[in-house]
Amino acid sequence: SVLLYQKPNRDICQSGTSLKIQCVADSQVVSMFWYQQFQEQSLMLMATANEGSEATYESGFTKDKFPISRPNLTFSTLTVNNARPGDSSIYFCSSRAGEEVFFGKGTRLTVV
Amino acid sequence: QQKVQQSPESLIVPEGGMASLNCTSSDRNVDYFWWYRQHSGKSPKMLMSIFSNGEKEEGRFTVHLNKASLHTSLHIRDSQPSDSALYLCAGASSGSWQLIFGSGTQLTVMP
To answer: Considering CB atoms only, which of A42, A96, A101 is closest to B103?
Structure first.
């Protein structure tokens, strides 16, 4: 298995500001994935981040709005730029170990 | 249309009863499936995965997969109030670990 630690657990930010969410794995992982979840709804895959290369983004998510860094095999950062109330949701990082995909505990973001 | 579709949206079963949840992929490339359970305010936790035709059982949980129809189902027997949660089905292409999630089934087990 892999344990994924996210920081912060929750945050409140003002509209127009930026927020960084960190994800640290307890072992080296090839890919890290970022998901967005609105209240009690499905998880949407935002992007895939591999070490040393640019993240690949899914439809509806852009590098300008959600830049992702992946400087090494245990760490990734998701930034939410120019935050808007519509970005208020929970952000999860995830990664695979064997045939399982594990999730961090999530970062609950509220934009006011 | 979502690539992974779940039904029903919500389900209420009595304690000790059987809960049956369904999931279908509309994309023939999405033929590996996972079932997750998410309690309110928590992160998703994997229950079971299934990649081949047939059935897998772990304790009170059984999953089926029919690859021809890309349909998987999760059955929970002897349901407990602690099973009340959002159940998410996720699919991916073989070799890809980018999970595509369905919209979930909210299960409530009534004591």
So the answer is: A42
> What tokens appear for A5 in the block?
């630690």
Tokens of A59: 């439809």
Shortest CA distance to B65 belongs to which of B76, B75, B51? B51
Long-range pairs, B73-76, Cβ under 8 A, ≥24 = B73/B20, B73/B21, B73/B22, B73/B23, B74/B20, B74/B21, B74/B23, B74/B35, B74/B47, B74/B48, B75/B18, B75/B19, B75/B20, B75/B21, B76/B18, B76/B19, B76/B21, B76/B107
Using pLDDT thresholds of 50, 70 and 90, give the confidence band for residue A55: very high
pLDDT digits (tens, 9 = 90+) for B7-49: 999 999 999 999 999 999 999 898 899 999 999 999 999 999 9
Residue A73 has pLDDT above 70, yes or no: yes
**Maximum CA extent, chain A:** 40
Q: Which two three-digit tokens encode residue B79?
A: 């349901």
**How far, in Å, CA of A102 to CA of B67, rounded?**
24
Residue (of A13, A37, A52) closest to A103 by Cα position? A37
State whether residue A73 sits within 8 Å of chain B by CB: no
CB nearest B101 (choices: A40, A43, A105): A43
A contact test, residue of B5, B65, B98, B105 with most A CBs within 10 A:
B98
